[in-house]
Amino acid sequence: MRKLAVIVILLLMGITASAQHEGIRRYFSSYTLNNDTTTDMRFYNDTTLDEFYKFMPQQKVSDNTLGLMNPGNPYLTAIFSKKWEKHDFFFLDNYQAFIKSHSDVIYFDAQKPFTRFDFTGGNKGLELVKFIHSQNFSPYFNLTFNYDISNSDGFYLNNASKVNALYLAGAFTKKKYQNHFNFIFNKINSNENGGIEDIDRFESGDIRAVDNNVMLKKATSTISQLGGQYNHEYRFGHYTIDTLIRDEKNDTVLNKNLHSKFSIVHDVTFDRYIRKYSDIASSFYTNFYNDSSKTLDSTTYYQFNNKLLFCLNIHNDSTGNQLKLYAGLKNKLYAYNIDSTYKKLYNSTYITGNLLLKHNKTDLQAEADYCAFGSDAFDLDVSATLRQMFGKYLGINAKAGYSLCNASVFDAYYTSNNFKWDNNFKKSGVATAHLDFFYEKFHLSVGANLNLLHNYIIYDYQAMPTQINKANLIADVYINKTFNFWKFHWFNEVAYQYISDKQYVRLPEVAGYTSLYFMTGMFSNALLLQIGLDAKMNSNFYGYAYMPSSGVFFLQDEKKFGFYPYLGFFVGAKIKRFRIFAKVSNYGSLFMKPTYFTLYRLPDNPLAFNFGISWEFYD
């Protein structure tokens, strides 16, 4: 794979020699689709060195994650409010940074073909390859191909992983009829070692990380997804044609505007998920329900969503102000199969709606789903987000929501070689609130999050699902600030987290991250150079243990860990649209006691060296 990457890089160097453009001018616009289109800036703005050295997908979710910094390994966020929303397939809850999803697909309008290639390499066979190509085949038809692949042997025995994640997306947006589609494929192959055997010898430094015996030596898991989505909208209305002056030479262009007050949206998605776990008998597990010599577990989940919406375009003007209301029905059909012995079909129908308001400096979105009848009858999910600017730089982001939903089908019923349960849980409720004040001129953000859980589900000391009827308040306050002194830049973020019932939710009380770097232009600013240090740390806590057989994090009281500073050193450079970095991670392990655990029996990686490039080109 590494040789292939080098060949590709050399080819790209030849191709892009004539394709490079000065500056950061863009030849495309990009957006995501959730009933309405939302501008997406991930590729549009991603040309700087800011955070380029954060090469692992988990670091895009949070600077403080709990779990191995390897691709294809499960992780948690240290701050509860930073976690992803629950995935439809339970087994992918803790892998979402590595995979593609329908809601995350980026659609393009590319005036010139756009291509980007990223490669990251490092110790223990780490290879991260990202490739995206987007091209308009006509002014109205675009295709985008996005493919991520990662490999790692891991720093510990039986720790190798491989991830493939890709999508093909298309948009045909001519006149009154709008069409969007995507096909998604995800596959995660992981060796499951259950953690190291002797924690005391590891922490004393008597044995190297790579030489530690592990709890499981033959266990593997595979999670895969194959899915597709088709969304189309017909807009009723009439066109007007304006003649616009395009440049100082008085060149003109015809601008066609559709005046539509009403449209119909139809959206269909289908996904098939499979999770397989295999192992040979060992003392790690206490129960063997099917076979005492080997384990071959398999779980399959199918989901089909069919949604019909009516859209009222109440107000939409040339300045971008708009008021839209979506309302309609959604049918959710899903099937749950275990080892071909248990099969059950579920069917639910929802009343759904969406409100969009943009007016001057106000951006408000609200959503609601209510299950009127079916397997999930009376489930409710409502939320609203607000972005309000009070000037050019000062503003707030706010969010509030409430959900009352059935337990996942996995929490309710599961049978495997090592675990079995059959539960009749009540609906679980979560109330959330978020408020963030920011002042962009001072690079300052201060905020707070509230989460009130009731009838929530945890995995107990035996890794069995248990419903907690007592309410649990989880709140955090945070501040992040960047200080700029001449060519020095210092970013800091710290969060304090309060958990009213720590018996059932195990996360650190304090988590922080800091990055100090020097950045300067060289050779008449043709090259931008960055040199810096970063560190992250969280307070001591009884962290979670991980159960490979069922893929869940569960409670343990055997060991506390934390207060270990993960120190890094990085160098980066940028020339036109080419970026490169090198980073040394956890170099403190050379001279500090190896207590860098974030999960029980699963220490983070020791000293590691990584390097990477990113190259964009057009045509």
Overview of the molecule:
- By secondary structure, the chain is mainly beta.
- The protein has four helices and 35 strands.
- The chain has helices at residues 2-16, 58-61, 199-204, 409-412; strands at 28-34, 36-39, 65-66, 76-77, 107-110, 114-122, 126-138, 141-152, 161-174, 177-192, 219-245, 252-280, 294-316, 322-338, 342-359, 362-374, 380-389, 394-405, 413-415, 420-422, 428-439, 444-454, 456-459, 465-468, 472-485, 488-499, 510-522, 527-538, 545-547, 552-554, 566-575, 578-585, 597-599, 602-603, 608-618.
- It is globular.
Count the beta strands: 35
Mean pLDDT: 92
Approximate shape: globular
> Beta-sheet strand percentage?
over 45%
Give the biggest sheet.
Answer: 22 strands, antiparallel, barrel
Computed CA radius of gyration, to the nearest angstrom: 25 Å
Structure classification: mainly beta
Can you describe this structure in just a few lines?
Helix content is 5%, strand content 58%. The protein contains four helices and 35 strands. It has a 22-stranded antiparallel beta barrel. It has a three-stranded antiparallel sheet with strand order 2-1-5, with no helix packed on it. A two-stranded antiparallel ribbon has the order 3-4.
Keywords:
5% helix, 619 residues, single chain, mainly beta
Record the SSE blueprint:
Elements: H1 2-16, E1 28-34, E2 36-39, H2 58-61, E3 65-66, E4 76-77, E5 107-110, E6 114-122, E7 126-138, E8 141-152, E9 161-174, E10 177-192, H3 199-204, E11 219-245, E12 252-280, E13 294-316, E14 322-338, E15 342-359, E16 362-374, E17 380-389, E18 394-405, H4 409-412, E19 413-415, E20 420-422, E21 428-439, E22 444-454, E23 456-459, E24 465-468, E25 472-485, E26 488-499, E27 510-522, E28 527-538, E29 545-547, E30 552-554, E31 566-575, E32 578-585, E33 597-599, E34 602-603, E35 608-618
Antiparallel strand pairs: 1-2, 1-5, 3-4, 6-7, 6-35, 7-8, 8-9, 9-10, 10-11, 11-12, 12-13, 13-14, 14-15, 15-16, 16-17, 17-18, 18-21, 19-20, 21-22, 22-25, 23-24, 25-26, 26-27, 27-28, 28-31, 29-30, 31-32, 32-35, 33-34
